[in-house]
Design goal:
355 residues; Cobalt-precorrin-4 Transmethylase, domain 1; globular; disordered C terminus; four-stranded parallel β-sheet; single chain; alpha/beta; five-stranded parallel β-sheet; Rossmann fold
């Protein structure tokens, strides 16, 4: 029987996921169904199902979208040719790419233009990796962090750059970085790490859980890179950890002799699922929140969406002779409105956080 749950803080949605979920919620509230989204908006099946029920159709090819339909591009970043094709096909196009992913795209283009060979540390087939590599495919070599550099040989050892998928574990990236720096003394890397601040923070929190708990449950979907990284971080730090999509995925045998259970979530997993997992674990002495840092990052809605919504607001105010035209509207309150609240509008069953 579980006596206590240690609940990681921070956990769950990062600023990029918050922005993307709220942006797609605005799209389904603004346009008649269907709204199309290129790739899953974020890598979480509960979130994807909630949007599908609200009328979103997720596609893997832009050609699957009817002409003049509203299209959103996912948070993971899209290849330049995908963006161009969507621009030509959509009535309204909103790119919900995370700004941190955009930063890596910029780095790749800049270093390729300067003639560098680029090492991209990431996972083959991941949406973020596909979009980033497409920025300069002739200049990039993908290196799986589990396999390392191997026999990688650049054209010019004096012009080598190293960038990474934002959702990697620090311990995964560090090994490749150290090897590359030793092989190529002139190695270029970004002054500010490509690894997502939220990914790093969640990994530090799960490290603490692994040291204190008999078992760690990581809430998130199988195709979520940062969720899988949390499981690996827990294991590296001596913890017994399992990924779960939600409460139904918990094996009762895991809880045998697990007096203290740590619970956290990947950056695309909603708190509704976290609290449902805690309810299923049913700790007899309740929940202890384990806070390793605080996060205040906020990414505004995509610029094209903000312009569209502002124009719609102005049109409604003008049409109805609003008493206070031009006054702050819902867009100005975006910082206070959370993605979990957005999902509640889409009928993802809300839960209250445990005390």
């Amino acid at each position: 029987m579980t006596r206590k749950v240690l609940l990681a803080e921070p956990r769950g949605f990062c600023a990029g996921v918050e922005m993307a979920i709220k942006a797609l919620t605005w799209m389904v509230q603004t346009f008649e169904a269907p709204v199309y989204c290129y790739h899953e908006i974020v890598h979480n099946q509960a979130v994807v199902r909630a949007f599908e029920k609200a009328g979103v159709v997720f596609v893997d090819e832009i050609d699957q979208v009817p002409l003049d339909a509203p299209i959103m591009l996912s948070a993971h970043g899209s290849a330049p040719e995908v963006v161009a094709k969507a621009s030509n096909r959509a009535a309204v196009l909103v790119d919900a790419v995370c700004p941190l992913v955009t930063k890596v795209h910029h780095e790749v283009r800049r270093m390729a233009d300067q003639g560098f060979d680029i090492i991209y540390v990431g996972h083959e087939g991941h949406d973020e990796a596909i979009g980033t590599i497409a920025e300069a495919p002739a200049a990039i070599t993908l290196v799986n962090p589990e396999h390392g550099l191997g026999d990688y040989a650049p054209h010019n050892s004096e012009q080598v750059a190293l960038v990474s998928q934002t959702t990697l574990g620090l311990f995964e990236f560090q090994g490749v970085l150290e090897d590359a720096a030793e092989r190529f003394p002139s190695l270029w890397t970004a002054r500010k790490s490509d690894l997502c601040y939220a990914t790093t923070n969640r990994q530090e929190a799960v490290r603490v859980l692994a040291e204190r708990a008999d078992l760690v449950l990581v809430v998130g979907s199988d195709n979520s890179s940062n969720t899988q990284a949390l499981v690996r971080v827990a294991a590296v730090n001596g913890g017994r950890a399992y990924r779960v999509d939600g409460p139904d995925a918990i094996d009762p045998g895991w809880l045998t002799n697990a007096e203290v259970v740590g619970v956290t979530a990947g950056a695309s997993a909603p708190d509704q699922l976290v609290f449902a997992v805690i309810d299923a674990v049913a700790p007899t002495e309740g929940v202890e929140r384990v806070q390793v840092t605080t996060e205040g990052e906020y990414f505004p809605l995509p610029r094209d969406l903000r312009k569209l919504l502002a124009a719609l607001q102005a049109a409604v105010e003008g049409g109805y002779s609003a008493r206070n035209p031009g006054q702050p509207g819902e867009l100005e309150n975006d910082r206070e409105w959370t993605a979990n609240e957005a999902l509640e509008l889409l009928a993802l069953s809300p839960q209250q956080p445990p005390e």
